[in-house]
Design goal:
By secondary structure, the protein is of the alpha+beta class. It has five domains: about 5-70, no CATH class; about 85-200, no CATH class; about 205-305, no CATH class; about 315-485, Nucleotidyltransferase, domain 5 (2-Layer Sandwich); about 500-620, no CATH class. The protein contains 20 helices and 20 strands. The strands form five sheets. It has a six-stranded antiparallel barrel. A five-stranded mixed beta sheet has the order 9-8-7-10-11. Helix 4 crosses helix 5 (about 145-155), helix 11 crosses helix 20 (about 595-625) and helix 19 (about 540-550) packs across helix 20.
Length: about 675
Amino acid sequence: MPRNWGNILVVTKDELIPRYYNCMSTLKSEIHRYKDLPYGIKKVQKGGNGRQMYIDFDSLSKDVQDSIGDPRKMHHPLIQFFQFDPKAVRYFTDYRFEDGTPLKTNFKEEYIINASVLIAAEKLRIARLTEWKKLNKTNGRGLLPSICVDITTFNEYLPKLFDTLHTIPSSYRRFDTMWKSFFNSFEEGFNYESIISRRLQNQNRKVMTDDMIALLNDMFAGQEHKPTRTEVAQQYKAFLSGQLDVISNVTGEIYDHTEMTKFRAISDRSIIAWLGKWENKIGTHAKRSGDRQKLMQEFIPWHKLEKIKEAGTLISIDDRQPPFLYDENRSRVWFYMGIDVGSEAWTTWVWGKDKKGIIIEFYRQMVRNYTEWGFNLPLGLECESSLNSSFRNTFLRNGTMFDHVNIYANRARSKVVERKFGELRYRHEKSHLGWMARPHAKKEDNQKSAEKEVVIPFDAVVDQSLSDIETWNNMPHSVHTDKTRWEVFCEMQNKNTQPTNWEAFLPHIGKVETSSCRAGIIKFRNTTFVLGIDGEIALDEDLIRLMKYVDGKEFTIYWLDGNDGNVLKAMIYYDETMLCDLVPHPKYSRSIHERDAEGDYNRELMSAYENTVNNFMRLRKREIEKVTIIDNRKKTLNNKFQIPGRKRYTPNKETPKEVVQEIEETEYNYNATTSTKSRRWGSNFR
């Protein structure tokens, strides 16, 4: 965004590269070409030695001027009211759907912009209504339609001011519905949830039904042989066409392929993908696998064991160069420092030979220090524009790292830190060997002496500066004289500070690596981690939900190391969402005799982690039924080719006839014989 520099409007090189010029060399060539001509691009201030290079805005081509935007011509009623709402940033960053899924990054940005524009429009409505009342216009009719027009036209300015656009409807009817839902749903506050579209839930569920998933899992793991996923996809296609029957071995039920609400047509590629999802694969592989060791290696989280052994409100920031030379080229060390205004204690400092190379590291160091000291980040930040303006729409936006950020352009006196730099220079550093006076100091005792300049080694300058910071923080506070500045910082923290919003700023200042999850374990930084939420190990439904996303997948890890070099915070970024934390893998001694209370706790924690996956595996395994596949598809077109001499079964196509058998009648003559002689019982044994 162009700014006033004296009586002219200027832009920096960062606003021109690479959008309008490919690189710095191209820009320098263009400036040199028109240097002595009365037209063309003109440089009004040379960069270097801590100064920013400025280009005359009016010397740029009209196309570039129109693209950047001329603030002298940008007059819109919403400009003075618009700012990013920190509550909206936090709300949409932390928002979760019913299944625990967070918003994707592009939707977060869209909803934050829309909410901030609506809040600015409400401020404009109140101001405009006040003006109307002064003009005795008591009827507010037409006020809201005028606000709708202002919001629509504001999209012409947003890209030039903040490099973004809002998506608030321009139709008054739809705008009125959105306005009322946002402002009139609650007695106090705003209904941020009304902005979120309900169509963001997983659309795949509309095609893949629960019955289809169950059937595919049964076909994949419930058959006598082990089909591939491709074969299952082909079998499912044949099942839908009626060429293949699927029967449940448990109930004897024949699956009805004509039930379109349960079984729908889907591509082979989708079937293969669904069968490869972790939540399906963990059950089917448990059913199919005959090697338990490989199954556990693939899916079950493992414990990490030790080797057996015997025996814990406003910050003002800016860059500075301590007045000491460290080489013959008159080079000076660059420091970037931050001071807590309330306690007057230096809380963040980094150093290097180039100030541009240390700005990101400065914010990393701030997070490291505050986190390791056990404090939340400050509520507010004041900083200079030179190095920080490029972060205005990322981690220096209101609500991301700080609730409110003031970025000052060429206004050194507006920042508290500048005055503290002067005190540090003249009350602490002046007595050190090699101290350099300012070229045009007003006081005689601060002017340059006749002595020859002394070169101090780089490391000595750094160590000397760190010693001055220690001395400063241990000195009495200007108000609470019975306490040091550091004691005031530790004992008098603002109660309204917010917990560190890692999810919002870690993708911008964190380091990036790629890794993957296998059986709930992530190998990262030469060690292992497990899945977690809010710094704690994930268990139960939370763990299963995360495993569905990341197990067996490759993902991005945004992380930050601590002052000791170990991982301070690590988060998984997958499918355009900051999904979860990485928590160090709990470990304990293999020997019960060397295991302490912490080891017992780690063992219980890891067992709960393992049992969560085991229980889910058993649940999915029990849900799988054995099926019988009757394949009615013909493999041949006809039987014209036959090998002679083979015995073949030839079915008899004649209809069987009933055979009537004639039975000859035989006459029997029965001559009854009467005997009067009785048989004795003893004759049976003779």
